[in-house]
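Case 285 in the screening queue. Each case pairs one protein sequence with one candidate compound; here the compound is NAP. For every case the pipeline is the same: read the inputs, emit a complex structure as tokens, and attach any notable structural observations.

Predict complex for case 285.
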Amino acid sequence: MNNTKIGWIGLGNMGIPMAGQLIKAAYPVTVYNRNKEKETSLKNIGADIASSPAELIEKTDVVFIMVSDDKAIDEIFRGERGLLKAQASKKIIINMSTVSPGISKEMAKICKQSGNEYLDAPVSGSVKQAETGQLVIMVGGDKQAFDKAKPILEKLGKMALLVGHNGAGNSTKLAINSLLAYYAQGLAETVLFANAQGVKTEDLLNLINNAAIGNTFTKIKGDAITQDNFNAAFALKHIVKDLKLAKNEGLSSPLAQTVLQTFEDAESRYGEEDIIAIIKALKNN
Ligand code: NAP
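Case 285 output:
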């Protein structure tokens, strides 16, 4: 049994398998989710439940957050029973959500004033990597806090790299997710073009995945396309959020403008489906 008491806030597609990894690694884990039904699967494998973020931070040493967006972070910190309502000091708060660098800088400052540490530590990889502890983690914050958190982060990911001060993890993640959007739209357009030329999707993907241009993304999302399975591993609405955040940080390159437009146009119909549902939106154009 590891001694560090872990708190986990946010049990969505990513939070459930990530918190599950820490339970498997024998950490004592307390979880909180706004929708209480999502706590059940972790309770069944040994997690304690907290009724609010404030209660959770009081009971634990290191608090992880994995929620949707800036608004969710604001509510978790400033809500009625939010983290800031607790009498807590000497805690490390690790925000793994993909959010703006600005909110991380703001929350890091507030945490420091009350004697706590804040790290922004977003992840690259999706549900499959979360289930196997193979995420790639980019961290912004103080080196001392990072060094303390690193052994736990290494249970969640195959690497955890400190890239700069608070906010730098978020900036790095926005850069990486821009590439993710280019890949997704690129793969979808390539399949549709080949199909229009009479090439079967399976044959095309078989060739791509055996060629230098193939990668984990083309394999996983290629399978999703051939199996017609668009259940969200990474919801399309989240890439729209990320591309908007990147735009707010100044990204305005030709590809970035194009993918933002394409994914925004698709969001009302396909927002709850997986990012690769962009192929359905492009096909229906
Ligand atoms: P998700 O399945 O949509 O889950 C979102 C989580 O955020 C849920 O626990 C939800 O609680 C919580 N939440 C949303 N708004 C809230 C609020 N106002 N107050 C409290 N909790 C709130 O999202 P996900 O796929 O796990 O992604 C989580 C984060 O990781 C996002 O920032 C995403 O961009 C990023 N990310 C995702 C992936 C991926 O492949 N899925 C990969 C890398 C990074 P409820 O259950 O109560 O709604």
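Case 285 observations:
- The beta strands are 6-9, 29-32, 48-49, 62-65, 92-95, 117-120, 123-124, 135-140, 157-164.
- The chain has two domains: 6-165, 171-283.
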